[in-house]
Every structure is written in structure tokens, then in C-alpha cells.
Design a protein that fits this description.
By secondary structure, the protein is an alpha/beta fold. It is 44% helix and 18% strand. The termini are far apart.
Length: 469
């Protein structure tokens, strides 16, 4: 066994031996932990977090506070407000055939959990699921992304300041660290990342029959019909697409727009991009960068492929390799075999496709894997209902984008290739919990009348039970 594996096994064993103590903590004790985490993000480490994210990929201060810190603070507040209710046993109906008994569900912690988080929103997508894990009473090993090293370092400092290693610990490193950790028999794994890596995580989890939450991605379509408010659609799509430089799992991946309003939309979104980031986004203080050269090259190849296939660069397409900079880019007239239409883009490039009949758009969406999100811009209720009814997606937003992620009352997650399981609020708490079913017998049980030996009388009682109960 390698030294690395020995070290991880030691940490895992520490948490395993302490897990029952953590599991038996009451909601007040868990709330205290959440409040400490809230204070660390809200004040103690706030400035360091902002500086780290700027260092990692030039993330603007306001964007960091709105998309990294605020969502986690909101998650903590929501958990604190509702945790007493969530941890109570939930009484359920007991059928008449089980007369004399009562039934309830107890949400118990799953145990030792592994949380593997990504680089695109490292604070948000590490600490938000951690809130759920703490609320549910688990111990946690965190493996953040190596692609945002400064932010991972700050997160490590926060975790070591607030928690003992036998409760929550953060382990840094590259893919080999993840591979070693995945060999351990965790009780639950929460992974956020690409579908290809999600398959690897799920395969490793299967070796130990470990439950998983997979927050993946996919090509999230945006459908715009001829009744849509084009100016509002352009403004909202430009925001949702180019925030964080398009490195957002629920960003609009591509637009499917009625041919009747395509030119109007392209004109409107160009105007909106320039309003947000100026005529040169490279000097804008509101526009961040691609995380690293590998992803920059991948996106550049998509643009070159589009050019080679005679697509139209309707806006942008400007790049700077030294800065990992790609300007907000709109591409039209793409052929069906363009690489931009294959994998999730995860960058500031927006393909715009047209349709003549809404059925064409539906057929195009359904020919692909189920997306993490699907957006609709329409003022026609029938069209909206038709799209919702005839497509499948992890979540949807009507006449806006991305905002469904921010509602703690909504479950967040995908379906099949875009994810397994749900997060946020009660759904996150539930994901890190085992729903333990409990039935208590109070009086004589009616089922005792049907115990062996099976006489003619019991046969008649059985027939009556089947018929009436």
C-alpha cells in the first residue's frame, strides 16, 4: 500500500471511528457549526476568498460575492431556519391492516462522506454541499480542484480553523489523490464535475455500493419563440451566458430561436454585451478569464472548427493566449457537425441556431442527452407548456436563466447524463441522510390472526384481507 493511500486511510479511519459521535449531535450543535462556517465566509476569510479567486482566474469582486459567497450564506441561513423541523421524526400513515401500530421516518446521517468539488465555483460548489452534510450529521473528507489552487488553499485554511480532522478535513492534490480516495468505502460521495468523470466516480462507488450524488452538466438549450420579449431575453441570456466567462454548469449552452426574430435577437444581445463589458471586454473589470491554458485551447479549437466549416462569427471571436482570454462570442450558421454542438461548451461562446416550427426545436433537444437545465423565452402559455411537456431536463427557467439554482425550496440536479440526485435546502439534507423506516407495535397485531398453521378459517381471512384491506 502506498504512503499516500496509508495517509488517506488513516484520515478515513479517524472519521469512521468518530462518525457516531457526530451523528448523535442534535440540531442545536449542528447549527453552531454552521454559524461558525457562516462567520468565516462572511467576515473572517471574505477578503482572502475574493483575492484568491481573482488570482485563480481574474474573477471580479462583485461576481465573487454574488456567485460564490452569497449562495453559501443563503444555504446556511436556510438550513439554520429549518434544521429543527428536518431532524424531527416524520410521522406517516399506517394502513388499517396494521392496526395497533404507528409508523414514522427518521432521517439519520449516512456516515463518512467524500465531497469532490470543481474549479468553476470553488467556494460555492464546495461549501454549499458541505452545509447539507453538516446539517445531516456526517463526517466529510473534501477534495477540491487543483485547477484553482489559491482558492483551494483558502478553503483548506477555513476547514482546519473550524473543524477537527476526525470530523471534516480537506485534502489537496491532483487527480491521483481523487483516485486514491475513491478506493475507500465511503458511505456517500457527492461529486460535481463533467459527465465523463462522473462515470468514473460512479464506477468506483459501485465497488463499495456507495450512494452517490452526481452534479454533472450537459448542453443546456435556450428556446426563444417569436412571441418572446427579445430585449429582455437578450439581456438575461447575455448575463447568464457570460458570467464567470461562461464556465457555469447551468449556463445557456446554445440558443434555438425562431427564424422570424433571429436578427432582432443578435442585434439586441450584441448591444447588451457591449453594455455589460464595453467594446473591449479584455479591459473590463467585470469580465473574468478561462481557468487555464488547457481549457483555453479547447475553446479556441471550437472557434477554429466553426470557422473552417464556414459558420459566421456574428460577434467577438477575439482571443489572447497569454491571458487565457476569449471575448464574448456569438456564432451563427453552424453546420450540424460543428464541434460546438457536440460537447458542453463551458466557455463564453454562444451558438445561435434557428427553427421554423417549434417541433423542430423540440426534436433537436430530444435527440441529445437530457440537459441539466432548459430555458424558455415566450409570452405564449401554450408554447411554454408544450416545450415543458415534450422535453426532459434537470431544471427549467421560463423567461430567465440560471435563477432556478438560487431558490433553496427547489431541488437542484440533473437527470441521467446531467446528474443523479438533488441538492440545496431540504433536498441536500435528504441526499446526505438515510430515510430510516420505523414501525412500532402498540397493541395486539391483527396479522397474528394469519400466522401458521394455515387452516380453512385463515384461508377465508386471507381472502377477506386481499379483498377489503
Amino acid at each position: 500500500m502506498s504512503n499516500l493511500k496509508n495517509k488517506f486511510l488513516e484520515t478515513y479511519t479517524l472519521q469512521k471511528s468518530n462518525q457516531q459521535n457526530i451523528a448523535n449531535s442534535n440540531y442545536k450543535q449542528r447549527i453552531k457549526k454552521l454559524k461558525r462556517l457562516k462567520r468565516a465566509l462572511e467576515s473572517t476569510h471574505r477578503e482572502k476568498i475574493c483575492n484568491a479567486l481573482y488570482h485563480d482566474f481574474k474573477k471580479p469582486l462583485v461576481e465573487t460575492e454574488l456567485t460564490e459567497i452569497y449562495p453559501v450564506i443563503g444555504e446556511i441561513k436556510f438550513a439554520i431556519k429549518n434544521l429543527k423541523k428536518w431532524t424531527k421524526k416524520k410521522k406517516v400513515t399506517t394502513p388499517l391492516s396494521l392496526l395497533g401500530s404507528s409508523s414514522y421516518i427518521l432521517y439519520e446521517p449516512k456516515g463518512v462522506c467524500l465531497l469532490i468539488s470543481p474549479w468553476n465555483f470553488p467556494i460555492n460548489l464546495t461549501f454549499a454541499p458541505l452545509v447539507s452534510a453538516i446539517a445531516a450529521g456526517n463526517t466529510v473528507i473534501i477534495k477540491p480542484s487543483e485547477h484553482s489552487p489559491e482558492t483551494s488553499k483558502i478553503m483548506g485554511d477555513i476547514i482546519s480553523d473550524l473543524f477537527k480532522p476526525n470530523e471534516i478535513t480537506l485534502i489537496q492534490g491532483d487527480v491521483t489523490v481523487s483516485q486514491e480516495l475513491l478506493q475507500l468505502p465511503f458511505n456517500h460521495i457527492f461529486f460535481t464535475g463533467s459527465p465523463s468523470i462522473g462515470k468514473i466516480v460512479m464506477k468506483a462507488a459501485a465497488e463499495h455500493l456507495t450512494s452517490v450524488t452526481l452534479e454533472l452538466g450537459g448542453k443546456s438549450p435556450t428556446v426563444i419563440d417569436e412571441t418572446a420579449n427579445i430585449e429582455k431575453a437578450a439581456k438575461r441570456i447575455a448575463w447568464g451566458k457570460f458570467i464567470n466567462n461562461g464556465q457555469v454548469c447551468v449556463a445557456p449552452d446554445y440558443v434555438l430561436i425562431s427564424k422570424k426574430v433571429e436578427k432582432q435577437f443578435v442585434k439586441a444581445i450584441k448591444k447588451q454585451i457591449e453594455y455589460f463589458y464595453g467594446t473591449n471586454a479584455q479591459v473590463s473589470e467585470s469580465y473574468c478569464r478561462i481557468i487555464n491554458s488547457k481549457h483555453f485551447t479547447r475553446l479556441l479549437q471550437h472557434i477554429e472548427d466553426a470557422k473552417d466549416k464556414n459558420a459566421t462569427i456574428a460577434f467577438g471571436g477575439i482571443t489572447n493566449e497569454k491571458e487565457n482570454y476569449i471575448s464574448p462570442t456569438l456564432i451563427t450558421n453552424l453546420p450540424k457537425d460543428a464541434s460546438l454542438l457536440e460537447d458542453e461548451i463551458f466557455g463564453p461562446i454562444l451558438p445561435i441556431l434557428t427553427y421554423e416550427k417549434l417541433e423542430e426545436a423540440i426534436n433537436y433537444i430530444n435527440a441529445k442527452d437530457k440537459p441539466l437545465a432548459l430555458y424558455i423565452f415566450s409570452q405564449n402559455k401554450k408554447n411554454t407548456e408544450y416545450i415543458i411537456k415534450n422535453t426532459r431536463a434537470g431544471s427549467s427557467c421560463i423567461n430567465h436563466v440560471v435563477l432556478q439554482y438560487s431558490n433553496h425550496h427547489l431541488p437542484f440536479g440533473g437527470s441521467n447524463t446531467s446528474g443523479i440526485g438533488k441538492a440545496h435546502g431540504f433536498y441536500g439534507f435528504q441526499e446526505f441522510s438515510n430515510m430510516r423506516s420505523i414501525l412500532k407495535q402498540h397493541t395486539v397485531s391483527a396479522t397474528e390472526l394469519l400466522y401458521p398453521p394455515y387452516t380453512e378459517r385463515k384461508k377465508k381471512l386471507t381472502n377477506a384481507t386481499i379483498k377489503w384491506f
